[in-house]
Amino acid sequence: MEIVKIEKKNLVDEVHKQIRDMILSGTWSEGEKLASENKLASQFSVSRVVIREALQRLRSECLVVTRQGLGTFVSNPQNYSVPDAHIALTEETYLSMIQFRKSVEYSAIELSAKYGKQEDFTLLENCVERMREALGNVEEFSNRDFEFHYAVVSCSHNDFLKRSMLANREMIIEIFKEMNKVPGSHSMGVEMHEDIANDIINGNIKHVLKLYDSHAEYNLARLARFFQNEK
Predict the structure, then answer these.
(1) What is the pLDDT of residues 86-119, one digit of tens each?
(2) Confidence (pTM)
(3) Three-class DSSP category at 118
(4) Is residue 20 exposed (0-12), middle (13-18) or buried (19+ Cβ within 10 Å)?
(5) Tell me: the pLDDT tens digits for 126-172?
(6) Which secondary structure element, helix H or strand E, spans residue 119, and what is its range?
(7) Alpha-carbon torsion 18, 184, 52, 9, what sign?
(8) 46, 53 in Cβ contact below 8 A?
(9) Relative orientation angle of helices 185-201 and 169-180, to the nearest 10 degrees
(10) Closest by Cα among 101, 70, 111 to 212
(11) CA distance linking residue 182 with residue 78, whole number of Å
């Protein structure tokens, strides 16, 4: 009987497989931020070079997306199913909307802990259901998306914040429409809005604000390929 040489394990293959399996099994869900390269290297007991190569493979499979300064996030390959797709939205416009929503919605969310009523919370839940019913219809889904965020602001019972949202309704909906044109966006949107509604209802204000921040960061990473060039 001949001796069979023991093949040395390819560390990149092993790391790639483990992370890939965690993503495909749902252990790590879309939008979830991965640990830093240093931390992943420590967790897997490998070098940063190995982690970088494994992440590069995952990026080529559209299972993760990386944004310099923000990190690496679990992504949805379906988003990139249309080669060379673009949306009529610039990164600058998206960031401007986020700044506006931080000024208005973040304040409203904090006020909701004091002034929110049961009927407000019921409306939030109903808005999520209407978004679910509009899955696959970009225009209808985008309108329901705005209705949800207006309902969030309404929880504050502050007329100035509510009027600010209504004054920018058309602009916000147009931005939502462009974002919702990206394949596979709707399901994640429903789940995220459902999480926001539950946190507001349960008074988990700090966590809902973190959800807003993390989702904005993930969008910056995943939409980079689709943003229209600045003029």
Answers:
(1) 899 999 999 999 999 999 999 999 999 999 999 9
(2) 0.91
(3) helix
(4) middle
(5) 999 999 999 999 999 999 999 999 999 999 999 999 999 999 999 99
(6) helix 118-133
(7) positive
(8) no
(9) 130
(10) 101
(11) 9
